Amino acid sequence: MLNIGVxxxxxxxxxxxxxxxxxxxxxxxxxxxxxxxxxxxxxxAYKQLKICSQSDExxxxxxxxxxxxxxxxxxxxxxxxxALENGKHVFxxxxxxxxxxxxxxxxxxxxxKNLKIMVDHTFIFTxxxxxxxxxxxxxxxxxxxxxxxxxxxxxxFQHDVNVVWDLAPHDFSxxxxxxxxxxxxxxxxxxxxxNKLEDIAYVTVHFGSSKLAHFSLNWLSPVKVRxxxxxxxxKMLVWNDVNPDEKxxxxxxxxxxxxxxxxxxxxxxxxxxxxxxxxxxxxxALKLECQHFIQCIEQDSTPLNDGVVGLEVxxxxxxxxxxxxNGGRMVQIGSDVLSVTG
Amino acid sequence: MLNIGVxxxxxxxxxxxxxxxxxxxxxxxxxxxxxxxxxxxxxxAYKQLKICSQSDExxxxxxxxxxxxxxxxxxxxxxxxxALENGKHVFxxxxxxxxxxxxxxxxxxxxxKNLKIMVDHTFIFTxxxxxxxxxxxxxxxxxxxxxxxxxxxxxxFQHDVNVVWDLAPHDFSxxxxxxxxxxxxxxxxxxxxxNKLEDIAYVTVHFGSSKLAHFSLNWLSPVKVRxxxxxxxxKMLVWNDVNPDEKxxxxxxxxxxxxxxxxxxxxxxxxxxxxxxxxxxxxxALKLECQHFIQCIEQDSTPLNDGVVGLEVxxxxxxxxxxxxNGGRMVQIGSDVLSVTG
Amino acid sequence: MLNIGVxxxxxxxxxxxxxxxxxxxxxxxxxxxxxxxxxxxxxxAYKQLKICSQSDExxxxxxxxxxxxxxxxxxxxxxxxxALENGKHVFxxxxxxxxxxxxxxxxxxxxxKNLKIMVDHTFIFTxxxxxxxxxxxxxxxxxxxxxxxxxxxxxxFQHDVNVVWDLAPHDFSxxxxxxxxxxxxxxxxxxxxxNKLEDIAYVTVHFGSSKLAHFSLNWLSPVKVRxxxxxxxxKMLVWNDVNPDEKxxxxxxxxxxxxxxxxxxxxxxxxxxxxxxxxxxxxxALKLECQHFIQCIEQDSTPLNDGVVGLEVxxxxxxxxxxxxNGGRMVQIGSDVLSVTG
Amino acid sequence: MLNIGVxxxxxxxxxxxxxxxxxxxxxxxxxxxxxxxxxxxxxxAYKQLKICSQSDExxxxxxxxxxxxxxxxxxxxxxxxxALENGKHVFxxxxxxxxxxxxxxxxxxxxxKNLKIMVDHTFIFTxxxxxxxxxxxxxxxxxxxxxxxxxxxxxxFQHDVNVVWDLAPHDFSxxxxxxxxxxxxxxxxxxxxxNKLEDIAYVTVHFGSSKLAHFSLNWLSPVKVRxxxxxxxxKMLVWNDVNPDEKxxxxxxxxxxxxxxxxxxxxxxxxxxxxxxxxxxxxxALKLECQHFIQCIEQDSTPLNDGVVGLEVxxxxxxxxxxxxNGGRMVQIGSDVLSVTG
Lengths: 342, 342, 342, 342
What we know:
Four copies of one chain form a homotetramer. The first copy, chain A, is of the alpha/beta class and 342 residues long. Chain A contains ten helices and 15 strands. Chain A has two domains: 2-123 and 285-305, NAD(P)-binding Rossmann-like Domain (Rossmann fold, 3-Layer(aba) Sandwich), CATH 3.40.50.720; 126-276, 2-Layer Sandwich (Dihydrodipicolinate Reductase, domain 2), CATH 3.30.360. In chain A, helix 1 packs across helix 8 and helix 4 packs parallel to helix 5 (100-113). Chain A is globular, with a radius of gyration of 22 Å. Chains A and B meet through strand 7, strand 8, strand 9, strand 10 and strand 11 of A and strand 7, strand 8, strand 9, strand 10 and strand 11 of B.
C-alpha cells in the first residue's frame, strides 16, 4: 500500500485527492493547505486523514511514499526538491517548474534517487487525445501539414503567471504527445490589458519541416473555444472539446494537385467525402493518469508524462516569454539545456 | 445614364454585371472575357449587351464611362491604368494591385484626371460589418483590446496569389474600416504544402497601442470558419459570418480589477451579463457597393473604399509577403510609400 | 424536342422555368401569369419565349407538349384537367389537388389519354433524401421504430391553405418515399391564431405495426427547424436540412434487452458507437426532378412522383383536416377512395 | 435544527443528501437503502450518519422531523403515508405517486396533521425556468399561442414506468408553473419497441383557449434534445437546456395581420428584430429547492411544488396513460378528483 501526501487543496486539489484515493494499492493519508477554508472543506469529507497546514508535516513524514504538489507554480521546485530529497516520488501540477533549470535539477535528483516524477498533463489521458493518438499512429491522416489550436475563454486569471503559462501547458503537452516531431523554435506575441501579465497571446511553433503549429491563447474571450484542427495529407481532423457528444470529427477531405504545367494550368482538385465521429472513451482522465503513476511506481517504468516531458513544456513556455519580450523574435526551444535532455 | 463596361466574366463577374445593371442611372453596355465558355454563359442572359473577347474593345469604347476590372490580380494595374488614361472611372476587384507602387500610380493618375477609383472590398457593405461599425462608433464596446479574425476553409485556391493575397484583403479592409487606428507593423508566418504558394498563414498586426490584431488564414481547413472576435473594455463581440440568423452577438462580459495589492491579493472580477444579437440588414452588399460607387461619381464624392483604402490593404499584403519571406520578422506597413499616402 | 408551357410565374415559377429550360430535349416556349409584375420580371430574362396573361393561350397551344401548373392549389384541378384533355403531359405543383376526388379524376384521365402526371415533390430528388433512401434500402438502420419530423419557421403564410397543406406535402411525400409501409390512419391537432387557417399543427401517423410517425408543423416559430429523426432497431439517423455541411448523421446507437426476468431485473443495455456523416450530392433537386419527368415521357415510364403518389399525399392532407375538425379523432387515410388507389 | 432521514440512495439520492445536508438549520441524520452497494458508497462520505437498510428505522425514528422519499414511484405512497402518520414532513421524488387517488390521500393526511409535502419538481428552481417565469410575468411575450416541448435522448430507461411517467413530470410541472391557465384535456400517443412500456410518446394538451401545448418524449433518440419553444403574440422564446451558455433566447419576431379583405388580399406581415439571451442564474436548482422546503417548514408556508402541484402532474400522467390505451382519445385531466382539488 502506497501512502500519499497532498500539498495544496485549492481549485484542483480536491480532484487529485479524490482520484488518488480511489486507486487500489494507494491511499491519501495526509493533506496540507495554508488556507483555513480549504482545510475546513476537507474535514468531514474523508475519514482517517491527517489534515495539516505546514508542508513539512508531509515532506518529513516517513510513512509517506508519494507527494503530490498541487500549489502555485513558483513553489513547485522547492517542494518537489524536498520531497525527492526525502525519498518520495512526486506528482507535480502543470507547469512542472518556473524554469527549465529547475526542471533539469529535479530530473537529475529523481534519477539519482531512483524516484519517479509525473507532471500533471491530464489532457493526454482524455479519451479524445488518446483516440487522436491512435488515429495518427495508424496513419489515418497521412503526413501532418499543420496543427492549429485555440484555447480561449473569459478567465480564469492566474495571478502569478501569464496566459501562456496558464493555458499553453495543456496544448504544448498535447501537441508533443500527438506529433512525432520535435519543435525547434517558436515566435510568440502577447499583450496585457488588465494587469502586467499577458492576457492574450499567439504562438507559432516551427519544426524542421513544412509542418506548422499555431496556438491562440486568450483570457478575454466572451466565448469558450477549445478547438484543434489537424490538417493532414490524406484526411483532416477537428477536435472540439466543448462538444459533449462529437468531440472528434475526421473529414475525408483533401487537396490533390493533378497537373502542374505552369501556375495558370495548375489543376488543384478537392476531394470531399464522408465525415466520421468516432466514439470517445468517457473515463475521467485524471483517474487514468493517477492509475498510470501508481503503476509506474509499482513496476518501475517511466510515466508518459515524466519530468522530461514536463521539462520540454517548460522550455516551450520559456521560449514564449523570451519571444514576447523581444517583439515576436523567433526563439530556439530549449537550446540552453539540449545537452541535458539529449 | 452612365455606361459601364465589364472586363472579366469568371466566378465573380456575373454578380458584378447583375448588380451594376440593376442600378438606376447606370447600365452595363459591354462585357468582355477571353474564355469562350464565359461568353456563352453570358449570351442569352442579357439583351442589348456588347459581348467581346478583347479588353480593348471596352477600354477604347468612347461611350463607356466606367470600367469594372474583374480579372486576376496581375492584370489589374495595366487594365485600370488604360481605363483611367482613357478617362473612365474604374471599379477594381480586390486586391487593388500587385504592388503598392502600382496602386500609388493609379491613385495619382485618377486624381490628375479627376476620376474615381473604387476597390471591391464588398464586405464593408454587408449588414453585419455596418452594424458592427455603428456599435463601435457608439462606443458600445469601449476601448478595443484585440481583433481576432479567422477565415479558413478548403480552397478555393487561387493559382496566382497565396492564401494571404486571396483571403486577407477581406479581413484587412474590414479591420481598417472598423478600427480607428492605423496599423504600424505586422509579422506573418506562412507555409506551402500543395504548391509553392502559401496555403496557410497567420498574421499579427501591431498598432501604437496595446491593441493587437491577429488573422488566421487557411486554404486547407476541413471546416469553413468565418469568425471575428472583438474584445473591448466594456463589452465583447463575436461576428460569425456563417451563422445565417445570428451573425453578431454582443456579450456584456468583462474583467475588472478591483484591488491590486500585490499579485496574490489581486482581485480580478468577471462580469457576465446578457447576450444580444441585433438584427442585421439582409440587403446584398454588392448592390449597396455598386450604388455607392455610382452615387460617388454622380456627386463627385470619395468612395469609402477608394484607391487609398485599396493601397493600404495592398501595403499590408506586401508586408505579409515580406515577413513570411523573412521568417516572421516584424515589417513596417507601407514604410516605402508613407510620403505618398500621408 | 418537347415544348413546355408554364402557367404561373410567382415565387416558385422562375425556378421551374430555369430548370425545365436547361434540359436537353426540352424547352420552355411559353409562360403565363395574371400578374403584370411577374410578366415584367420575365421579359428580358429569356429570349424567344411567348409571354402571356391567359392560361388558355398555353392550354390551347397545339405546339405545346407539356404544361407545368405552378399556381395556387385551388386552381390545379381545372388547369391540369384542361391540359390533359388537350393531350398534354402535366407537371403540377404540390399539393396535387384540393381533394382526392379531383386527384383520382386526373389520374384516370391521364391513364385514358396515356399521358404522364408528375407532382412536384421536389424533396425526394434531394441528395439527402436519396442518400437516406439508399441507407434504408441497404437495411443500415434495421427495422424502423419511428419517424419524427419537424418543419417549423416564421411564415411564409399561404393565404389559401393552412400550415398542414403548406408544409406537410414535403414531409408526407418524403416519408412515403422512405418508409416501405402504407400509413393507415392519422390524428391531427391544429390551432389558428392569426386568421382562420391553422398556423400550428401536430400529426401522428399510424401503420399496421408498432411504427409511429409524427409531424410538427408551425408557421409561428422564431427559429427555422428542418429535422427528421429516424429510429431503427440497429441504428438511428438524424437529417438536419438546415445544416449546410452535415445534413445526415447516422448513429451507431441502440438499445438491447439482455435479460427479462421480471421488470426489476430487466437489463436494458445501450450501445453507443461512432457517428457517420456521409457525403450528400449537391445537385439541385429540381433539376433532377425535371430531367426525370422528361425522361419518363420519352421512355413512357412512370415517374417516382406520379399522380398516384400525389393522390396519397392529398389523402393524408384530407385526413389531417378531417381530424383537426374533429378534435384529433383518428381518421383512416384514403378510406373513401381505396378502391380506386388499390 | 431539523433532522432529516433519507430513504433511497440510488441515482438521485446522493444529490439529495448532499444538498439537504448543506442547508443551515437542517442536517441529514440517517440514510437507508436496501442495496449494499449504495450503503457502501455512503459509508465514509459522511460522518455521524445513521446508515441502515430498513426504511422503518427512519420512519419510526422519533428524532427525525423530515423524511425524503427517493425510491421508485410504486413505493412513494406507502413510505410517504407512514412518514406523515408518524408526524414527519415529506419530500417525495417525482412523480408524486402512482395514482391521483394516492396523491389525494397524502394531501389530506398532511393537511390533517399540519405537515408539509414537497414533490421534487427540481426544474422549477433552475435559473432558466425562473427567468422565463419572470419574463412571462412581465408580459414580455404577450398572450401565449403555444408551448412546444421536446425532451428526447437514448435512455435512461426506467424499469417500472413508461417514458411519459419518466420524463413528462419535468415538463408538465414546468408548464404548470409557467403558464397561468389550467390544462383541461389531453391526447397522447405512445409506442413500445423494447419491452411493454412505451418508449416514445407525444402528448397534446388542450386549454379552454386557442393555446396549445405539445410534448415530445422519447427514450430512443440518438441525440439529446431539451428544447421548449414558447410562441407569444408579441415575442417568441426558445429555451435550449443543453446549451451551456445561452439557454434562453428571446426573439423579437412576430406576425401581424394588416388587412383582411378576403383571403387573397390578406396582408400578413412579419416582424423580425433583435434576439436577446438574458443571463441565467447558475445556482444548483436542487439546493434552492431544499432551502425552499426547509423555509416553508420553518415559516409554515406552502411550497411552490406542494402536494397539490404533485397531484396535478399525476393527473396529467394518468390522463396520458388513459389516452394512450384508447388510441389517442382526448381525456379530461383530473376529472375524477376535481371535487377534491377544487
